[in-house]
Queue: 2 jobs
Job 1
Amino acid sequence: MAASSAVCRLRFRGLGLLDRFCFGLEPQTQGRFTSTASAVKAQTENTTAKAAKESKTFQAIQEERREQAERSVLISCPSKINENKFLDYLSKHGTINNHFFYNSYGAYAVVEFSSRESIASLKESTNIPAVEHEAAVPFKSRLLSLKWPGSQSSNHPMPKFKVQSPPSISEISQLLSEKNSIDEQLQCLTETLELTEENVSLRFLVCSLLRDIAGAYFPECIIRPFGSTVNSFGKLGCDVDMILDLDGIYATSQKKGSGLSLEYQVKRGASERAVTQSILSVIGKCVDQFGPGCVGVQNILQARCPLVRFSHQPSGFQCDLTANNRVAMKSSELLFLYGQLDPRVRHLVFSVRCWARVHSITSSIPGAWITNFSLTVMVVFFLQQRGPPILPTLDRLKELAGPSDKCVIEGNDCTIVSDLSKITLQQNTDTLEKLLQEFFEFYGNFPFNKASINIRKGKEQTKPETTALYIQNPFETTLNISKNVNATQLERFVALCRESAWLLQQKENLNQSSDSPWGFAALLVPSVSSGAGVKNRRKRKLEPASSRIKNLLDSLKIKGGETVAKKGSANSSR
Ligand code: GTP
Ligand code: MG
């Protein structure tokens, strides 16, 4: 029996990530601060280190980020900028805590002051531009443009521009092929794709800029990012999912006892959904007409979860603004928590998401595809099935919750423990290579026709309905998060799982070779199952399809030789 170990160690395991998610400053950035502008506060490591050592809860991390964003501005600037002069100019308004440059349709700087008064002072000295032949909407946002008269001298060092987009698949493949083991490849993949400290800051800043628009109507509102921006599984280039949180408006400060009370007169809507739609439609219009940098605004109000979609050009982010969506925020917290418990969780999720994207199992266009959210839940479920389990069930996370963790949203009990140190994990020493191989075997053989995936119980359950793929919604337990997936997409997923499991068993794919992708990189080559050719695959003698599939099935010991097609038809005849 595997020994149990109290997870004080969890704190150490999670530190790397918390570091990135809480005010992490890169050493070179810190160095640049001290040497560039005298008035810029020398950023010491204490904020970062403290935040990490305190092992903050998900909510505390989000709050710190949000507050940091409120003290920040986004400035369009010349690309050949004299960084010292720029910082000296801005620091007249107060101490600068942090800054970085990046490129997106031009050069931009994110500048974080140490106090919000600096923002007010900066705005005081900023002008509304006089535009020729057009008229300006006089909305004073924190998206600014730096006017730099005359040409800049070229003998000052150029600032370092931080990359905000992921490398191409061929670059990733090349990088991975240089590694010495599949475990190293998966770790490298996570490091290459994960959101950087700067990218997360920029995401929170975009939410904060949008809040300034919505705040004109609802001053107490907050716009919070959720989904992959905060759940620790986001990759560079992923969208920014936002929630317009109006909960602060409902909070009352009224003291009981006097007998008298006042109420606001309000307009009424037919339902909560109708009110959400109406609020989002007005904010969508403001974003479209007054929001600098916001383009392509679409009101998608008839969706199950009404939203406003737009592109924020200065950051390059695609944004989805929803309202009244607290369960989704809780799901993000849950995934974040699972990602913190063991580093293998994030490595496996990043690899499976990347593999799925390359083979068009997932797509950025809505449709019958499996979503990244569903895939992540599938990885969590797989890790709950290991012997001993790598992840606890959701029911266990609920049992460990304290009184302050109690959370009921629209009648759904969404309680989970927030203090990670209360979670005890069993010792499991599986390598990433083994986990990846067995993930593909697990889902290559999963009885999708009759069983559902349930991370609350950590066990397969009987499918309550005949949809192709049933993954129980973690918190709204009567819902299926993969209802959209059709039998064809599921069959493709299963076929690719089988093929990938088979490929990982082939000796030639397990040995590092200089001239072709190997290990995980070999799985990123277009596949037979994904409908693309195999021309680019490693120079392997192709077997006829029949014997290739036979090998595949033999190697996976599929129960009773049942094929995916059969499973599909059994499914549809129910
Ligand atoms: P990306 O593909 O990287 O954007 O991943 P993501 O996790 O952000 O997924 P997405 O943008 O599709 O959805 C954002 C969040 O909404 C998810 O993380 C979930 O918390 C939630 N979500 C997405 N799909 C569903 C669903 O079908 N049901 C429920 N309840 N929540 C969902
Ligand atoms: Mg998303």
Job 2
Amino acid sequence: MVSRVIPVDPFDLVIFGATGDLAQRKILPGLFRRHVAGQMPTDARVIGAARSDLSSAEFRAMARETIAAHVDPALQDAALLEDFLSRLDYVALDVQAGTGWEALRSLVRPDVVQAFYFSVAPVLFGDLAEGLQAQGIAGPGARIVVEKPFGRDLASAQALNATLAAHFEESQIYRIDHYLGKETVQNLMAVRFANILFEPLWNAQYIDHVQITVAETVGVGGRGAYYDRSGALRDMVQNHMMQLLCLIAMEPPWHFDPDAVRDEKLKVIRALQPVGRGDIVRGQYLAGGGGPGYLEDAGNPSSDTESYIALRVHVANWRWKGTPFYLRTGKRLRARTSEIAITFKEPPHSIFDDARGWRENVLVIRLQPNEGINLKVMIKEPGPGGMRLVQVPLDMSFATALGAEGADMPDAYERLIMDVIRGNQTLFMRGDEVEAAWAWTDPIIAGWQARGDRPQPYDAGSSGPEDALMLMHRDGRRWREIRE
Ligand code: BG6
């Protein structure tokens, strides 16, 4: 199976913050991979902009190094690399000092797709948006791309939206949540809306509960200062996990169209019930396994920021009334794994005398690693010993089912950047979605602050704090094991 690569229109992509971590680790290597795939048209150009005083040749040398470090050696064709590097330019630009705009204006072409990637601290978004307009660089069809964190509460997100809206239309603003660019996350929509099999059962009548897990083995060392002002709720739940929940819970959109999809997601967020104090468990990892504890990583011995969170969430609408969604995410856990598990209810009546082997049907969508889908079904245990039931997996690994393509999925950023150039906002968050997500998150954080809530310690390499187990046990349910 060979996927079709449709070249996009000629473009100029300006990366503000081009010497930063995201640009170096994700954006430039991702663009190179798209180039290797044949998706970059011959006159596409990438312009790095940052404060450092570099020449274009120095920027290209930097790109060469980062591509060598972050792209699969099998893709590193020398001729393609030279060709890619020849499309790069660099401008030293200091937004706050107001220098470098003219040089940028001389490079950005008015007659191609213009995309401006704000890979910088959010405090600079306003100045960048204003500068692009005031300097006459951004044409009417220009797009801006902004990264999370998009605000840290409702008020700051509203302020940010207002700042951007003063200079660009909503249809020009691409708010990235890189989870939406992951192939398997998009597959959630394909599985739900391209098969008739699941949709009739996709409601509280047939689904007992949903578990969404994003577990990481890494700690926050290296980005402790940022993380300590954020915590797992702001860093992962308000955005990535909320998006996963939306894709599971939303109604079928009338069409796979940006606003149709985002309208349905917004309805889910608005239907989320406030989360009670007893429905949340927060944790902080302890030192262990050769690594420091959270407090040391964060550089804040009295921090009450959570590196783990588990929540029981209810979507208050006809479809989901009575089906809890359990979400958990954390750092320094026992394995790196992201998955969504949908546990179905018991059949209404068992015709088998010996139902000891009976287990619920579970549909597991593995987002990473080993992307795939696993459906647990009941069958007869083989052999002549009567009718005994046993659960077996119908297991599909995308790597096996789709061959080389399934094994080599494009990185989320590759997909998303190309969507920006194509002008497709389906996989980007709309301003009202982000605000609705903060409106749900804010009271949770306010509750912690009012109570002086402190996270519970948990062992590095464990599955999280004990109380998170209780969150499910008391409902007569269990978390799935965290393992790769
Ligand atoms: C980022 C968070 O948005 O997502 C990080 O800020 C987290 O804390 C990362 O580690 C997880 O992304 P992925 O793609 O590795 O699952």
